[in-house]
Amino acid sequence: MLHCKYYTISTMFCFHKNLLLQRIVRQYSSSKKDAKPIRNYLKQNSKFLDSLRIHVKAGTGGFGFPRYGGEGGKGGDVCFVATEGMTLKDFLKKYPLKKLRAEMGGNSHSRRILGQIGEDKKVNVPTGITVYDDKNVLIGELNEPDSELIVGKGGVGGNKTNGYCGLKGESKSIKLELKLIADIGLVGFPNAGKSTLLKAISNAKPKIASYPFTTIRPNIGVMTYDDLRQISMADLPGLIEGAHCNIGMGHRFLRHVERTKLLLLVVDINGFQLNPKHQFRSCLDTVVLLNKELELYKEELLDKPAMLIINKMDTEGANEKYLEIKNQLEHLDDTIMSYSDEIKPSKAIKFDKILKISAKDQPDDVQRVKSTVRELLDINEELNNNIEYKSLKNIKEQLRERGPVLI
Question: Which regions form coiled coils (predicted)?
Fold first, then answer.
């Protein structure tokens, strides 16, 4: 009788436990149905790939043949070939294991004194790739289509100097970093209107909204002119104060402006505040802070040709705000001296042009940006060509044969 009682209590406990579990599962399922789906653009943008680590193993050299002094064949190299229109995602699809291996060199034998050279492993990678070894030492860059870079050298074949034993090829982990190649790099704080400008000025279709960080991956747009000339523009996720400490999205995407010919800084005339917990920064403050963040990432960026866009001039009181800071923007060297050391950059960026626009509502302003950008690119290209010509002329002058000098 006692046994039956305990059995009944145990059965009831299991029944209530199962009932409770079913209720939790139903609640979870209904809450999952009612929950908002993840935004598609976040899913897509999270797949953007601009860095990849892989392992390469070059071929080992073949054995030599001591009796006849035969030499083994050299091991094959692992070689990258820059390919236009390719992405790192394409690379990953072809090599999902992220391992590359070249062939071994052939052995020397009585019928073949010189061993056959191992076949090189030639791999297509995107143009704009920078390759580092596992100690973060630069191996090389591939900036031009069809250019090649050996990332793993094959071992020497067996011969008299190494006891006829072939040497192993290089085996190491390497990192591939993709730097987008564009004529212009858009840099600014979140919600400054970079994506709006890119959409209005080119064929790009970036995500645009009234909240910060709508751009979470670089976008490339192409401006086309009446004479069919094309100029490419890269829009990067917004920087924020402290990006050098990896706050926000950090400096991860700034590598994409290293190869641009012109920096285009876009700021909101009304200033910027990430949220109520953060300090409000005026338009002038954001310019100084962008200057500081660029300097902390790579000081050489400050020497690039640059242009400043003051956006959202269609808002109330925008003209008055601009007139207050106009002189300070034009003399940024003196302006930065009034800032505290934690904000103040050691060197002010030089703006070739400062334009105030409304990217959203004024098509004429957008056209003015297009023509100014083209003009600045042409002027700087001409200056660079003149510098190269003068330096080449000086070298030729130094190498020119001279007759005897009368002393």
Answer: none
Give Dmax over CA atoms of the chain in angstroms.
133
Q: Which residues pair with 311 in a beta bridge?
A: 268
What six digits make up the tokens of 369?
Answer: 């940006």
**Residue 98 falls in which region: left (phi positive, over 0), alpha (psi -120 to 50) or beta:** left
Are the CB atoms for 250 and 295 separated by under 8 Å?
no
CB-side neighbour CA atoms (13 Å) of 117: 7
Q: What is the pTM of this model?
A: 0.66
User: Cα–Cα distance between 150 and 120 in angstroms, integer?
Assistant: 10
Buried b (16+ CB within 10 A) or exposed e, 109-120: beeeeebbbbeb
Rounded Cα–Cα distance for residues 20 and 16 (Å): 6
Mean pLDDT by 10 residues, the chain (407 residues): 46 56 56 43 50 94 92 96 89 94 93 92 92 92 92 94 92 88 83 81 54 51 86 72 48 72 91 77 91 87 92 92 94 92 89 90 88 91 70 58 56
124, 125, 266 from 84: Cα distances, Å = 9, 9, 30
Instruction: Give the position of tokens 């990678």.
Output: 125
Single-letter amino acid code for the residue at 142: L
Interatomic CA distance for residues 173 and 100, integer angstroms:
10
Helix, strand, coil percentages in the chain from 3-state DSSP, rounded to 5: 35, 20, 40
The answer to whether the CB of 79 falls within 8 A of the CB of 129 is: no
CA distance 185 to 254: 9
